[in-house]
Amino acid sequence: MEEIKLQRTQTGIAAEYYVAGELSMLGYNVTFTFGNTKSIDLLIEKDDTIIAIQVKGIQRTKSICWNLDKTKVKPNIFYVLVNLHIDTPSSKPEFFVLSSKEALELFTSPPKLGDKRAYLDYKKLKNLEIHQDKWSKLF
Cα 30 to the chain's mean position, in Å? Predict the structure, then answer.
């Protein structure tokens, strides 16, 4: 079977739709954002409360990390990090839910790029076992 390789925008779109599907199944009303609001991918609503979500996706089980521009992290935004596992089609995508504070604490800046760009290692996050499928953080 030929190896699947998604373009970066395809990875992002797939991750957003998977997150929207999960949240819908949990009873949240989900809206996609378009245009100038791309620092927020989804708005979710439940019980008259609205939450902003930024989604970051990676493609493969063996993917190394998610990237983030730390200068764009704002309070009151949640980050949902997704591993799509397109290389193992029988595997369900994995979801990790982080508050903006947790994102700032966990994302590491590589020395050569300074403090603006940061990354979060997939294995490190998975080993923490405190963020995976933690949808309850949202409300």
Answer: 15
